[in-house]
Design a protein that fits this description.
The complex is a heterodimer of chains A (296) and B (317). By secondary structure, chain A is mostly helical. Helix content of chain A is 74%, strand content 0%. The two termini of chain A are 24 Å apart. Chain B has 15 helices and 2 strands. Chain B has helices at residues 2-17, 19-28, 30-58, 78-85, 87-118, 125-137, 140-150, 157-164, 180-205, 209-217, 222-233, 235-251, 254-259, 271-280, 285-313, and strands spanning 61-62, 73-74. A two-stranded antiparallel sheet of chain B has the order 1-2. Chain B starts with a helix and ends with a helix. Classes of the chains: A mainly alpha (296), B mainly alpha (317). Chains A and B meet through helix 1, helix 2, helix 5, helix 6 and helix 7 of A and helix 1, helix 2, helix 3, helix 5 and helix 6 of B.
Amino acid sequence: MLSVMPNARVRRKGTSRRVQTRSDRSRWLAISIVMWVLALLFLTPFVWMLVSSMKRDLDVFRLPVTWIPDPFSFRGYERILHGKYAFHLFLTNSLIVAIARVVGELTTASLAAYAFARMQFKGRDFLFLLYISTMIIPYQMLLVPRFILYRQLHIFDTLWALILPGIFTAFGTFLLRQTFMTIPEDLSDAARLDGASEFQIYRQIILPLAKPALASLAILAFVWSWNDYETPLVMLTSESNFTVPLGLTRYMDEQGGYSPSLVMAGAVASIIPVFIVFLMLQRHFIQALTRTGMKG
Amino acid sequence: MATQETAASGVAPAVRSSQSAQRQVRKKNQRLGYLFVAPNFIGFAIFTLLPLVFAFAVSFAEWDVISGYDGIKWVGLKNFGTAFTDGNFWGSLRLTLYYAGLGVPLTTAVGLMIALALNGPIPGRSVLRLVFFIPFIANTVAIAAVWIMIYHPRYSPLNTTLRSLGIDDPPLWLASSQWAMPALIIMAVWAGAGYASIIYLAALQSLPADLYEAADIDGAGAFQKFRAITFPLLTPTTFFLLVTGFIGASQSFGIINLMTGGGPGRSTTVVSYYIYQNAFQFYRFGYAAAMAWLMFLLVLLLTLGLWIFQRRAVTYD
């Protein structure tokens, strides 16, 4: 999937035939075994999560530890669907926030990025510097003043408190601006000669050409939004507004007894949507990470 | 894409001849630039710039927010002074250094090892890469929920395995003030190594093959090649992972809030969690804001330090 592998293989076969001895092969066999064992270890928490979600509560904490539920029980899943704390409500909230953030961020960030990358106006470079310098400011520092601000704006304890700040990010603008910079100016000039307006150039030339970068930003924004726990923790108080991660904490400190199968069923259900998105868009996702990763 | 390119090269001479005319058009379109930036900038100003000004102002005040603007008491530099004499603040900084200072390099090192292995001829590489990466896409709460169970002193797969390996007295993990922090660090490595390996893999991909060919001719071993070529060339990536790792590790309080609540005792009250507590549990918003500034300065200094170190350590040619 990544082009790392063919490269590596070619290098191995082509250049180091001399070194490709028996000891070399047995070394890679050893490394392979170590890696597979390590991968199994890495997977264990998720296996435990899945297994526990399908056990009866009394079987979860029972010795000896078992890795196959006996009997299988889907009480946990029934309870997240029909129980006291409505999972589908958390799910809906999470989806609303994530989709609004992705659409909003792609729109405002791509417009601003277009101006920063491909238009001339006074104060452009200063403004852009202002944008990127806020990117190193710790999230912690914004938490207290945002908390105060949201109360003033009356968006505290509403989904807007999660959506709005996610739409106007310096990060998204920066990421897209970097991509827009790489598109040859000739394309725009040609379109201008044909009488295209700036907006038409943005809409019909730049956006289609920058699709991979837009996809990267969309995926990152979706996953960050979906997995965010700290913002909802501070900004939401009503359970009806909870997103999935915060809703999950409800299962964890439920009054009248903590139910491990319920918590694990909720955990499994909270991961599945992101996991599906990841599986479908794995290539884009990895591109997105390396794209942002190389900008160190 | 292809048709657009031919179209562009077709008009290129015409473009050059009319460049001055275009410059005028662009000048006219100055205002359009602001129009494009405006939607993003207005939100950016409200949700990022304004809060920054707030954060600055609040750090000079004592305020519990709930009592409204009348409750603001301007105290000058008092909050910063308090921080310097607050043993808990220094203690929390030390714990952050412990958590990030051990956790981040470990995560990076494990990520590098995974990347090096996955860059070689290993069967099922794409499956392995997926497995290492899953923790990164799982949300903090789900991760915390399952690790709380794994760290259960008695009925967990972890300690039962340790016992069957002959360790009669395995650690109490989150219930022990000595082991709670190592437990969090182990989790952080598990959660972050897959990401580090993805970044490293991309960097490994772009390393020049001819250096390795030359090394092969000189008869260099695998370890020599790693020491002399791979590792030095990966320095920018390592620097990036360390810096973003430190920034991330010094800021996250969610996992602490879920797993330990800063305890047992104060054994896991890192500075980010201490700030969170002061703001949202003790309602000392001014003090929290002041500490956030101090933390920011420290992280900035650390980043600069690492950057200078990197510049000295590597010559690119």
